[in-house]
Amino acid sequence: MKSISALSVASEIYPLVKTGGLADVAGALPGALHAEHVVLRTLCPGYRPVLAALDKAEPVEDFDDLFGGPARLLAGRAGALDLFVLDAPHLYDRDGGPYSGPDGRDFTDNAFRFAALARIGAALGQGLVAGFAPQVVHCHDWQAGLTAAYLHYSGLPRPGAVMTVHNLAFQGQFPAEIFPALGLPAQAFSIEGVEYYGGVGFLKAGLQLADRITTVSPTYAEEIQQGPSGMGLDGLLRVRDGELSGILNGIDTEVWNPETDPMIAAPFSAKKLAARADNKKALQTRLGLAHEANRLLVGVVSRLSWQKGLDLLLDCLPVLAECNAQLALLGAGDPALEAAFQDAAQNHPGRVGVHFGYEERLAHLIQAGADAILVPSRFEPCGLTQLCAMRYGAVPVVARVGGLADTIIDANEMAVLANCATGLQFSPVSADALAGALRKCNALHADKALWKKLQTNGMKTDVSWTQPARHYAHIYREIAQDARA
Ligand code: ADP
Ligand code: GLC
Asked: pLDDT for 96-149, tens place per residue?
């Protein structure tokens, strides 16, 4: 098969910089697509940790003034990643995270920080660097959305463009006043271009102008074409229905491998499930939970935000107590939710254990040691933690939305009879329905033989990137364009 050259434009990339699943996807796609004969290089911003991780980086281009300061484009590797890094100190050399400062507030110049990324993404797509001529540019989320606009309005031959929506809640919406500084022609400020509710919409631009749109599950692809889930973009997405598809995410099955994972207490496999008990014990120790081998231990690894529905879990703490179950929660985000879970831990010593912050190692231990993993999201484009859970023999208990609905087979009677159930789904996303799911989970957990089937069915499920990579490669091949003049 003929190989394809492609460029991915992403604002986060695992393991260098990550606030959520977008980083995991951007980090895993190049390796996954390799098997499909796609050579995918990635452009990302030169945040401090990215520059620090670069090995033998070479400057390949200089810019005197890129949105207010000089910048350089570097090419280099970081581990297995083949990167272009936009080194623009006035935009990216800062304390804090990729989008906000240490005080948690968004940087006030995010429009220009990501317009710069998009602009260079488009230029790379059109032959900026000798010897690199991608036939496809793949833009991730709003931060890369303008890439499609720069390509479209360049008036030059351009590669095919894919816009992937990882989360429609983040749209990159800015006031009209920024438009002149973007360097786009005047006609771009229109409904057919970047204009969005009177301002400039970065994601809207990508959705409007890319050749193909993907999102990260088939159900989410349907949901976002309707009412509230479409968050203002449902009309546009309905118009582009023919170019929109849902491709589930995978997980990196090397990083998430219970047989070799150096971050867990004891390796295990579907055949050696008993060894999971050591991880449960280690997790209980780590979070100050009582050493109870047989109680249901429910785990959560999540951003703490409205999307993730964890306020519903707070309402269900009495149900957990009634079930004699334990809770292990790792999360970061909304200070009110953190405070509420901190209180819960204080009020239920030995039964509720919490840790706030971002901690990879504990995330792995929770997946390896918890009996069930709870994901009660109000909406979830794909979700990765339920995929990790299946791989680690933790039974996912999920809201029936988005990618959660598509990846977990609910333990209803027929699925149990057919021996294909992998978890529990509940609907609607309410405290009552969650309470019901937790009670059912506790009852299933008490049935050792049935529980083991749920675990092993999950562990047998292919959660790798193999299938998703095929779908992406197929789309790339359909839209590939040679942009060399
Ligand atoms: P989202 O991208 O909406 O946050 P996903 O489920 O797609 O949700 O991806 C979340 C990723 O971040 C997973 O890899 C998960 O393990 C990880 N994660 C989330 N919160 C934490 C945390 N507090 N510490 C460590 N890893 C976390
Ligand atoms: C977003 C979504 C999540 C998805 C991830 C990677 O952060 O919230 O559901 O799994 O992107 O696509």
From this structure: 999 999 998 999 999 999 999 999 999 999 999 999 999 999 999 999 999 999
Q: Which atom of ligand 2 is nearest to the CA of 24?
A: 6
Ligand 2 proximity of 29 Cβ (cutoff 6 Å): no
Q: What is the 74 CA–ligand 2 centroid distance (Å)?
A: 28
Nearest to 81 by CA among 252, 216, 302: 252
Residue 485 has pLDDT above 60, yes or no: no
Encode pLDDT of 73-86 as tens digits: 999 999 999 999 99
- DSSP letter for 249, please: -
Distance from the alpha carbon of residue 449 to the mean position of ligand 2, in angstroms: 33
172 CB within 6 A, ligand 1: no
Contacts of 360 (CB under 8 A, 6+ apart): 263
Q: Which CATH superfamily is domain 4-250+466-482 in?
A: Glycogen Phosphorylase B; (3.40.50.2000)
Q: Is 471 in the pocket of ligand 1 (CB under 6 A)?
A: no
CATH class name, domain 270-459: alpha beta
Ligand 2 centroid, distance to 163 Cα (angstroms) = 14
Q: Is the CB of 480 under 6 A from ligand 1?
A: no
* Distance, CA of 388 to CA of 458 (rounded, Å): 10
Tell whether the model's pLDDT for residue 445 goes beyond 70: yes
Contact 50, 99 (CB under 8 A): no
358: Cβ below 6 Å to ligand 1? yes
CA of 23 to the centre of ligand 2 (A): 9
| Region 327-351 average pLDDT | 98
**Ligand nearest, relative to CA of residue 365:** 1
248 C-alpha to ligand 2 centroid (Å): 10
When the pLDDT of each residue in the chain is averaged and rounded to a whole number, the result is: 97
User: Ligand 2 centroid to 365 CA: how many Å?
Assistant: 21
4-250+466-482 and 270-459: identical CATH topology: yes
Which residues make Cβ contacts (< 8 Å) with residue 37, sequence separation at least 6?
1, 2, 3, 4, 473
Maximum distance among all alpha carbons in the chain? 69
What gap in Å lies between CA 93 and CA 431, rounded to an integer?
A: 43
Cβ(338)–Cβ(379) below 8 Å: no
Q: What percent of the chain has pLDDT over 70?
A: 100
Mutate which of 13, 19, 24, 310 for ligand 1 pocket (most atoms within 8 A of beta carbon): 24
Residue 173 main-chain phi, psi, to 5 deg: -105, 125
Strand-by-strand arrangement of the 297-304 sheet: 352-356, 326-333, 297-304, 372-375, 395-399, 424-426
Domain ranges of the chain: 4-250+466-482, 270-459
| Ligand 2 neighbourhood includes 380 CB (under 6 angstroms) | yes
- Give the three-class secondary structure for 161: strand
